[in-house]
Amino acid sequence: MAASKVLTGARVVLPTGTVAAGRVIVDGTRIAGSAPETAETVDLSGQWLVPGFVDIHNHGGGGASFTSGTVEDVLTGVRTHRLHGTTTIVASTVTGEMDFLAQRAGLLSELAEQGDIAGIHFEGPFISPCRKGAHSEGLLRHPDPADVRKLVDAARGHAKMVTLATELPGGIDSVRLLAEHGVIAAIGHTDATYEQTVEAIDAGATVATHLYNAMPGLGHRAPGPIAALLEDERVTVELINDGTHLHPAALELAFHRAGADRVAFITDAMDAAGFGDGRYMLGPLEVEVRDSVARLVEGGSIAGSTLTQDRAFKRSVTVDRLSVEDTVRALSANPAKLLGMYDTVGSLEPGKYADLVVLDAEFDVKGVMRRGEWVVAPNEGHPVVL
């Protein structure tokens, strides 16, 4: 069991606000309300202490894919993102044959049962060929509820989210099916109209998959899905804040319209996250990463990102000028609430897992703790390469 620790001196971001020179007590795997006499004191003066990041949309990292790799490959990706502060991660798949995706769901569900991942997100194959992005068009299919149910069942209770183009045949019925089974129905890779999107939300869809990307733009006569997703209080919008997927004004618009409690920052990371430029495979499609931007070799579409959540945090507060508190909501609290895990992760409160990130004054990672154990130990010369 992890030794007891008292983390002192940092600016601690709590649900109620930031406490200057605060302290967080870690006892075993959890945050505690009081410290035993034998607790080790760790001085974090001049730094920030924030909850571990929760990423609900991530395809891999460290050179490894969640869609096609072995168990050890998946764990490599998980560990890579932990080094960058993501202590809770949902493994996302990309479009593939149904039998293959069901098989992957079985493998990933074992890792969910072990606590290595928080669940599975199926992005595809139930998406629009008009907005396919980096998905193989030949493998796309309509969201028939029987097919959707097949993937949910294969995940053995660990399916957390399914991205759908809800305007396609079977889309609305599939949304209802997912809602009945406690799985998030996410609207994305869609060519839906405003009215079709409203219908899907009323049926139970609650997430916008990487808002703005892979959907019609906001129009003044045909507002499309973006307006419907931003205006509805029942919807949480995913945003990829890497400086490539979104113009800063688009991010500001989403925060202004949806509010800080309805935004979840995601990475949508692929294999190259935390690894480097080069050629990779995203499902059956070849991707080239150049200057940290991933694009399909054929056609040039953006193919996920190489983002890690620490970079999203730093960009949010230094470039977008969001408050640290709102950034923590988007990176930790909001996605934890979406997953139904806010009782154990997403904030620094007694009783929750001791998942936390230490950031210096420039918002670079200096320490990462998961369940009471240091993944990156502060003050010990363990740099995180961004």
Indicate the proportion of strand residues.
Answer: 25-35%
Q: Major sheet: order of its strands?
A: 8-11-12-13-14-15-16-17
What is the C-level CATH assignment of the largest domain? Alpha Beta
The count of strands amounts to 23
Overall domain count: 2
CATH H-level name of the largest domain... which superfamily? Metal-dependent hydrolases
Structural class: alpha/beta
Count of DSSP-assigned helices = 9
End-to-end separation in angstroms reads: 30 Å
Query: Which architecture of the largest domain per CATH?
Result: Alpha-Beta Barrel
Overall form: globular
Overall mean pLDDT score?
A: 94
Low-confidence stretches: 381-386
Evaluate the radius of gyration: 20 Å
Largest sheet descriptor: 8 strands, parallel
Domain Amidohydrolase-related: 49-375
Keywords: Carbohydrate metabolism, Hydrolase, Metal-binding
Protein name: N-acetylglucosamine-6-phosphate deacetylase
Family: Belongs to the metallo-dependent hydrolases superfamily. NagA family.
